[in-house]
Amino acid sequence: MSTAPTRDAFLGGRLVLSQPPKGHRAGTDAALLAAALSPGANDTVFDLGAGVGAAGLALAARVPGCRVVLVELDPAIAALARGNVEANGLSARVAVIEADVTAPARQRTAAGLAPNSAGMVMMNPPFHLPGAVRASPDAYRRQAHVLPAATDEAWICAAAALLRPGGVLALIHRADALPRLLTALAGRFGDIRLKPVSPRAEAAATRLIVRAVKGSRALPVLLPPLVLHEPPGGFTATAEALHRGTAAIAWFPGA
């Protein structure tokens, strides 16, 4: 990072985040990912590719008592995540691990990502395959947005290895990544619940929130879309609640 980080309000002002002034910055994707899981008070959730900790910290703020492990590869960004944990008074429940999610299993275990040790995993993996977009000159943004030699499957394999049988994975991705996500999840996860996210009611989905259960054989479920904005452009009531951390994604509507 070439310039000093900014301090920004997040989750409707419930959190303050130090983050790089340019490149990848916390926003809607992190807020929606945080709303994708509802752990119990004593559950531990691993946030893979956590960045400065926005999604994991938002989850910890929404669910008092749960524990969160932020997993980040970049040492400078991991340092910001540690500072954010302390600044928001969450040191007792949130830890930071520096680790490469796509590293070989032995290296992941040595870093603290032991197989079958997690009940829940959340992640916002890089969105783009190499060559699909023009890579950003900002190293952090490039790392956060573009997959290197690894693919989505490497991230999903890492999550599957970390989760216990019956454990829950939640992720957010581009809507057009659906085919390759389903391919990577097949044989590892079932009960795959898909929540499209549209900027407006009449617009095509741009994001996809996914919830899946390790080892389940239940069939996939396509849920009604989450619409973010209503005329003349403000958040819908549901989107506003998700951004403020006062609601969670309804994965089982009517249950």
Structural write-up:
Pfam families: MTS. It comes from Labrys wisconsinensis. This is tRNA1(Val) A37 N6-methylase TrmN6. Keywords: Methyltransferase, S-adenosyl-L-methionine, Transferase. Residues 30-174 form the Methyltransferase small domain. The chain is an alpha/beta fold and 255 residues long. It has one domain (24-244): Rossmann fold, CATH 3.40.50.150. Helix content is 27%, strand content 27%. The chain contains 8 helices and 13 strands. The chain has helices at 28-34, 54-62, 75-87, 105-111, 139-145, 152-162, 178-185, 237-244, and strands spanning 6-10, 15-19, 44-48, 67-72, 94-98, 118-123, 163-174, 189-198, 207-214, 221-222, 226-227, 229-230, 234-235. The strands form 3 sheets. Strands 3, 4, 5, 6, 7, 8, 9, 10 and 11 form a 9-stranded mixed β-sheet that branches. It has a two-stranded antiparallel ribbon with strand order 1-2. Strands 12-13 form a two-stranded antiparallel ribbon. A hairpin with a 3-residue loop joins strand 12 (229-230) and strand 13. Helix 1 packs across helix 2 (54-62) and helix 6 packs parallel to helix 7. The longest helix has 13 residues, at 75-87. The model is unreliable at 139-146 (pLDDT under 50).
